[in-house]
Write a structure and sequence with these properties.
This protein has 19 helices and 15 strands. By secondary structure, it is α+β, with helices and mostly antiparallel strands. It has 2 domains: about 170 residues, no CATH class; about 260 residues, no CATH class. It has a 7-stranded antiparallel β-sheet, with helices on both faces. Strands 6-4-3-15 form a 4-stranded antiparallel β-sheet. A hairpin with a 6-residue loop joins β11 and β12. α6 packs antiparallel against α7 and α7 packs across α18. It is globular and about 70 Å long.
């Protein structure tokens, strides 16, 4: 979302999708299984163990600089600063680097809707429309169809990097890494036997996880889990309202906290208040048209009150992210929306362009395909400044009981449990969009694939540390600037 009030909205809801009338082949279960087994002849499961970066591998700092070209210049140093916190933080922001590396590796033809950035911190809890807390993949900025193993490799590698961050020994990390893929493989094989509707409805409710976790965890771990769960339940628009706003001249306003939170009028200029207000109303109206009819009716119950630019995440820092305060019946009835810029997926240079003309729609449709229950307010829009670039956005609730694992507090036992949970969750997400029978038959009943990816994960963790050192040296030499502590 640009700050210029003279922008106009274009192309809302337009899509360059596939012809809805195209013929969809329906193979038998045996034919689908044969397809999966045939893939083994082309790409043996053991082939996934290797990670041998070529001599002409792209400079990791150069790839990050390339990403920065389309981002808000004054926010890019914050991104670098957040990535410098640790090799694990660097890995979180390095999806483009890993996509470039995976592109040069053997790949299967078994495609699914990829998350595109399936590291362990992009899984977590959120409130489903029925208000029950569920657990799923919860970041889809890079979603795109592609080989199923790309997501699995990024997930397992994230556990290898996290295990090193926690100081776990190699043998312990290997067991955790193997557990991720084993959970994925075994879950996928089970899901492949289920009816389509049962597979589509399958989800993990937090209470189901909680019972199992409480039975296995120590008293200290249970206490931390309960506190984290309570924090997630309380993280809603009311909480955001109390934390992010103050009353100014009788009206609630988002409090300025530059550079992390900057009210829209501070960016647009003090003399453009009316134009800014008209512009934001137009943005909301445009977003409204992408919602189902019942959600449009719900949105109409709220009025726009204020907006601000807000820095979020690690890898996303520098993309344009806004928050909009909406008020319903009164000031005690807030709705905070987040409008987040959606650029081309980091996978597109290697897997081809999205079928969606609007990257906001790409994100929303990818999320709906991979999750059994998604944010009630998901939508998208597109804006353009005169003589400027077109920018796509997706919209969701800012806080909707969202919670994520506290990696820095994980013991080996907790990380093992979490590894199994993430493996199952990714398998379910992939089974919704891909051929679960073919993938299950490719994976097989043995542990060949599990051991291969565990080896890959450690090799890639080595590369991640080398790349982390490269960006650290780039900062020390003055090639790039990093802002820490923000």
């Amino acid at each position: 979302m640009s700050t210029a009030p003279t922008e106009t909205l274009v192309g809302v809801g337009d899509r360059d999708g596939a012809d809805a009338s195209r013929h969809v082949p329906h193979l038998t279960a045996s034919e689908r299984g044969a397809r999966g087994r045939a893939e083994r002849a082309e790409i043996p499961r053991s082939a996934h163990a290797a990670f041998d970066p070529p001599g002409d591998r792209r400079d990791p700092v150069g790839l990050l600089e390339e990403q920065a070209e389309t981002r808000v210049p004054e926010l890019v140093p914050i991104r670098y600063g957040r990535m410098l916190v640790s090799p694990f933080a660097f890995f979180r922001g390095g999806a483009y680097l890993m996509a470039a590396d995976l592109a040069g590796a053997p790949r299967t033809g078994l495609h699914v809707q990829l998350c595109g950035d399936a590291h362990l911190s992009n899984f977590g809890a959120y409130a489903a429309p029925d208000r029950r807390l569920v657990f799923s993949v919860n970041d889809f900025d890079e979603t795109l169809p592609g080989p199923f193993e790309w997501d699995v490799k990024r997930l397992v590698a994230s556990f290898a990097v996290a295990g090193r961050d926690r100081g776990f020994r190699a043998a312990r990390r290997e067991r955790i890494n193997t557990a991720v893929t084993r959970a994925y493989r075994e879950s996928l094989r089970q899901l492949a036997t289920e009816r389509n509707l049962d597979l589509w409805y399958a989800r993990i409710d937090i209470e189901d996880i909680a019972g199992e976790f409480r039975a296995e965890a120590s008293a200290k771990e249970r206490k931390r889990f309960e506190a984290n769960l309570a924090k997630a339940r309380a993280k809603d628009s009311l909480k955001a309202f109390s934390k992010l706003t103050a009353i100014v001249d009788g009206e609630p306003r988002i409090v300025s906290d530059p550079p992390l939170v900057v009210p829209i009028e501070d960016l647009a200029g003090p003399d453009e208040a009316d134009l800014v207000d008209d512009f934001v109303h137009g943005v909301i109206h445009s977003y409204r048209s992408t919602l189902p009819a019942d959600r449009r009716r719900l949105l109409e119950r709220y009025r726009y009150a204020h907006a601000a630019r807000k820095v979020v995440g690690v890898g996303s820092v520098g993309t344009r992210a806004w928050i909009a305060l909406m008020l319903g019946r009164d000031d005690a009835d807030p709705l905070f929306l987040q409008l987040k810029e959606a650029e081309a997926s980091v996978l597109e240079p290697f897997l081809g362009k999205s079928e969606f003309a609007n990257h906001g729609e790409r994100v929303v449709e990818g999320q709906r395909l991979m999750q059994s229950a998604s944010d009630l307010m998901l939508g998208w829009l597109q804006v353009q400044r005169p003589d400027g670039p077109v920018r796509d956005f997706y919209v969701r609730q800012l806080w909707d009981a969202k919670g994520s694992a506290i990696v820095e507090a994980m013991t080996p036992g907790v990380m093992m449990t979490y590894a199994k949970l993430c493996g199952w969750t990714l398998a379910r997400a992939h089974a919704r969009s891909g051929d679960a029978i073919a993938i299950a038959c490719y994976l097989g009943s043995g542990d060949v694939f599990d051991r291969a990816l565990a080896a890959f994960a450690e090799a890639y963790a080595d590369q991640n540390e080398r790349d982390y050192d490269a960006i650290r040296h780039a900062v020390e030499s003055g090639r790039i600037v990093a802002e820490t502590g923000l």
